[in-house]
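Input set for joint prediction.
Command: fold jointly, output tokens.
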Amino acid sequence: MSTIIQKLKGTKVHGYVLLLAMLLFFYGVFKILTPGNFGSPANLYSYLQSSIIYSVGGCGLYFIVVMGLFDFAVGANIVLSSIVGVLLSQHFGYIGFIVGCLGCGTLIGFLIGTLYNQLNVPSMIVTVGLMLILECVAVIVAGGVKQTLAPGLRFFSGAPGNIILAGLAFVLMYFILNFTKIGTYCNAIGSNEFTAKNMGINVKKYKLIGFMLLHFFVGIMAILTVSYGTTMTALTGMSTMARNFQPLMGTFFGVAFRKYGIPISAIVIGEFIISIIFNGFVALGAPTTIQNVVTGAALLAIVALTARGARGSVVK
Amino acid sequence: MDKRTLLVAEGIDKRFGITHAVNNVSLEIAAGEIRGLIGENGSGKSTFCQMLCGIYSIGEGTFTLDGEKLHIRNQVDANNAGISIIVQEMGTLSGLTVAENIYLGHEEPFMHMGVKDTRAMNREAQQILDSYGFGRIKAGTMIDHYNFEDRKLVEIVKATYMKPKILVIDETTTALSQNGRLELYKIMDAIRADGRTVIFISHDLGEVLAHTDTVSVLRDGEFIGTVNSSEVTEDDLKRLMVGREIGTAYYRTDYGQPITGEAVLSVEDVTVPGELNDISFVLHKGEILGFGGLSECGMHEVGKAIFGASWDREGKVKLADGTEINDIPTAISHSIAYASKDRDNESIILNESIRNNIVLPSLNDLASHGLLNGRKLNRFADEQAKNMQTKMQNVGQFVSDLSGGNKQKVVLARWLGKGSDILVLDSPTRGIDVKVKQAIYALMAELREQGKAIIMISEEIPELLGMADRIFIMKDGRINGEFTRSPELGEEDLIAKMV
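tokens >
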């Protein structure tokens, strides 16, 4: 038995066992605490549908987080791309909606990546600056009014539309990570940028690609977000900041489980776990502040238990 | 030997700020030759090779390979031209598989319309690993799962599988165990037999003479000359490197001096899971206590355990006054110093000035009422660096600009400035040239005379025999033999306890 455990250590099976154990643990805890209004198959399906939206954003963020970069403009881009998509959908239907969200998202990724490369300042600073600008642009584009997606264009608001679109995003992510140079180069740049440069990798180019891919996935997230909520309102004053963190939590799972070779599954299952915790608290009737405190603590505990460095090792 | 000229370097020149690292070097290397390249730290040998390999841009001059002038911008250009390098420190990238590391920058054969055939890449990488006899390393596994030495072997495969015309081996053997070294020597011989060329950089002059055909010497960035390995001795090479006789006073020459009975540190039943098993010994005032053994014998962990840097240590490390050392701050505040084998990662802060590196553990002593005075810090650092004869522009210079030997001087200056009485020096002369080595040995002897106690962990047997009052040889995490300093003591005595 111990030989089998030893053999499985560090493998994909090990990673999946850990993820599923966590999933079952949190499900079990809330199911015991509120058996009546939590965790029925219908409930779980609903949690999954909301979590896959964040999983898509988590996949996008993975490209830049592994390179040691960060992006605070994700939330602002979700809002702006949603609004552009909804506005274009009013003239061009589904095509306008999809192209508007994806095109706007990717274009903003290009803008962020280019500015980051040209200004040569930390990604956090560039993206905080752009977040403020994008929030204002969204207000102007929306004309100060709430934008509503037409009822006839809500295929992605629920199953199977949202599952199909998110599934395609995950397949795309898997393809990019495993069957193109981009995944390898993003990891290489994150590991040692100087060596990566010496290996002939065009670091600036791949950072730009990383930002574009992130915001392409943000574009997909915008489609799912505005379809799910049916409306989008542009707000200023850093109010989009909160939208950055839920996808980022999934990315943390992805980065933590990268060593098991299952970053995408970890993002998806990780977001599902976070969703279970959130909804578990809702079922318990806990106030939002308590929900946030416990969700944050649970995230720290999960990442610490599964992915922390060896004791004594340097962690930055 | 094939006498066809393979590489011609003409007027190669490189400056870093005011430092003239390589000064108008011209030399030729033949095909089918293993050329040693030696020189003191800072002599320019690594810079010269790194220009050849595209790591640094060429200041002035030209390299011509097989009659064609080279225009190299990065390592991939160099690889494509037929030049590879294996570096001293870690050259593989975490977060990538073994196969991805081997083919990094050379994925094209596996790309079809932008899509990478990962399975084919893994299969081919595994075949290459198997052909080198490294079949236990799995191509599809993350490189992070392997230890330093295995990662070094992957790097050797990466640098050689393309059959480069020239392979540069820059101080790699210090990172390898005896077995790893033998593997590398075999690969070098195979390259020579194939009519290709190796440039071999090492500070181990015995190794250089044993495994090269010719040796070129650089001194202060200038080319001194090339000699046939079979026609010179180690002393001849030292003379060429330094420009004067090194003399006989390399190691200590005294024998029969009794060790004082005054214990300064006792180690009782220390165990570090997987590294050390039940180690006990006493260190005395004015003693140099040597620790030797094969690379993975656990000797390097001894230094960390004493310094309080092993988090899962069991057993006791106690000073003469009974103070227990369980963590690094306690060790430093009780006058214990530690210089790690992994100098760049564990002993110095590369992207910091010499001044900040030296003053770091002494800031409390240098502060008045909690405030630091920049001028005082400069003075202190300058004095300590100059005492160690550190080759530098000033103490504001970044440590990353210094050669290995001068970095080690900064480490020693830091601890001597702190006034440490117990020095734990792990591989104190690793990657350091003979002149600095001689200076460090002289300093150790002087510190011993002053009554300081030194633990010297070393993979070099002559160093242990030449400097230590007592020698512990370790095997499998245990002390397997103890020897007292004696002119009769030979390398074979120590080796017998290592294997």
